[in-house]
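Bug report (template v2)

What were you trying to do?
Predict the complex of my protein with coenzyme A.

What happened?
Run completed; filing so the output is reviewed.

Input:
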Amino acid sequence: METTSQSGENFRASHTVREEGYDFLQVTRELLGEFCDDFIAIDCGTIGERWEREHYAMELPGKWDSSWVAVDGGIPVGFVIASLKDTGVHVHRIAVAHSARGTGVGTRLLGRVRESAIRQGAKRVTLCVSARNGTALRFYQRLGFSIEDPASELLNLSISVQALGGACAAGPS
Ligand SMILES: CC(C)(COP(=O)(O)OP(=O)(O)OC[C@H]1O[C@@H](n2cnc3c(N)ncnc32)[C@H](O)[C@@H]1OP(=O)(O)O)[C@@H](O)C(=O)NCCC(=O)NCCS
C-alpha cells in the first residue's frame, strides 16, 4: 500500500511540467504551506495591496486547480494564484523573483493558468492591475490582454483562452 508521502510525491510528479529549465508545479495546500514565505518574499515589491499568509491560504473555487509555482533547483522563483470567477479564471496574484524576470517565467505561468482554465471549462482569463504598474501592464498588453476600463486607477484586464494560447506559445518578440 502507498504511504501518504509516496502519494504526495506521486501527485507532485504528475502535476509538474518542465519548461525552459524550470519546473512548474500545481500549488496544493501542502505546497503553499511549504512555500508561502518564499511567495511573500518574491512579492514584497509589488505595487498595491500587500498579501499576508491568510490571503494566500484563502479557500476559493477552483484555486487548487488554477494556481502554479515555478521552481528552479527546488527554490520558488515565481508563482501565480488564481481561481474560478464567473465564466473565467481570475488571476489574484502573480510575481516573479527579480533574478528570474525577463526569462519567460511570467509568460509560462500564465500559460499554465490557461491550461488550467481549459481543463475547467473556463473561456477567459481576467485580472486587475494598478495603472501605476507599468512593467506589469506592458507584460499583459504584449500577451494581448485588453483593458476594460482604461480611465480607472485599478484596471480590469481580460483575454480569451484562445488568444492567450497563441501569445504564450509565441514567447517574447
Ligand atoms: C509582471 C511580471 C510577473 C512578469 O514576469 P516575467 O517573468 O518577468 O515575465 P516574462 O519574462 O515572461 O516577460 C517579461 C519580459 O521579458 C521578455 N522575455 C520573456 N522571455 C524572454 C527571454 N527568454 N529572453 C529575453 N526576454 C524575454 C518578454 O518579452 C517581456 O517583455 P515585456 O514585458 O517588456 O513585453 C514580473 O515583472 C513581476 O513579478 N513584477 C512584480 C509583481 C507584479 O507587478 N505583478 C503583477 C501584479 S498585477
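What did the reviewer find?
Strands lie at 16-19, 22-26, 68-72, 75-85, 88-96, 124-130, 146-147, 154-160. The CA atoms of residues 66 and 84 lie 8 Å apart.
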